[in-house]
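Q: Given only this backbone (217 positions), what sequence would you predict?
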């Protein structure tokens, strides 16, 4: 049975980014406006947003928001390239252990130079770059669904007795740690969808016990 998830870790439309403040969960559901890259750095560093996937998407989209609102201030493609590169590298420092942020930065930086060869018009260059950064939302969701499907298949293929499973999961791995669906919890959700799940134990992760508090939302 599919589990409904009314909360979203990230709400985005071009020029506007909101993140769910996970420090206030589960008592309150409060969204924080991320208007600048510094806002995103602070949210990542203080753990208002958690989960490697969600951190990466928040970081990338904060650059998209600031780039969109300051797009008329750039006088060349090279200045955009330098700005985006510098800001992505800055965001990595907010939580150096969040590997997905480093990977997302590398992917976008690797996209910048070929795009500058292909697209010589500055406004069009910015629009294509914004499109690519915004695709991080769908990319993350697609990855999570793939993890869920492949993980559930692997577990089922490697259990000796074909019966419903009892599983323990640790840390913040649900839909709020990602754009949606979840990573480790995504596998558990897929097992539930496949009618293979009996019971799940959620355990905490310090310093905020987010594994037990956030996964169950």
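A: Predicted residues:
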């Amino acid at each position: 049975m599919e589990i409904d998830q009314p909360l979203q870790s990230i709400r985005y439309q071009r020029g506007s980014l909101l993140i769910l403040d996970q420090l206030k969960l589960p008592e309150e559901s409060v969204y924080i406006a991320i208007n600048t890259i510094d806002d995103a750095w602070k949210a990542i560093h203080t753990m208002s947003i958690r989960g490697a996937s969600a951190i990466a998407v928040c970081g990338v989209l904060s650059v998209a928001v600031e780039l969109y609102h300051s797009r008329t201030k750039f006088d060349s493609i090279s200045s955009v390239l330098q700005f985006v590169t510098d800001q992505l590298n800055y965001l990595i420092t907010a939580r150096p252990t969040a590997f997905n942020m480093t990977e997302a930065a590398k992917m976008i930086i690797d996209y910048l130079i070929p795009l500058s060869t292909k697209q010589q018009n500055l406004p069009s260059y910015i629009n294509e770059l914004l499109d690519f950064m915004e695709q991080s939302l769908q990319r993350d969701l697609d990855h999570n669904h793939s993890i869920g499907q492949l993980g559930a298949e692997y577990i089922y293929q490697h259990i000796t007795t074909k019966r419903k499973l009892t599983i323990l999961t640790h840390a913040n791995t649900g839909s709020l740690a990602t754009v949606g669906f979840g990573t480790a919890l995504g596998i558990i959700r897929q097992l539930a969808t496949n009618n293979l799940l009996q019971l799940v134990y959620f355990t905490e992760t310090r310093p905020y016990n987010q594994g037990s508090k956030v996964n169950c939302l």
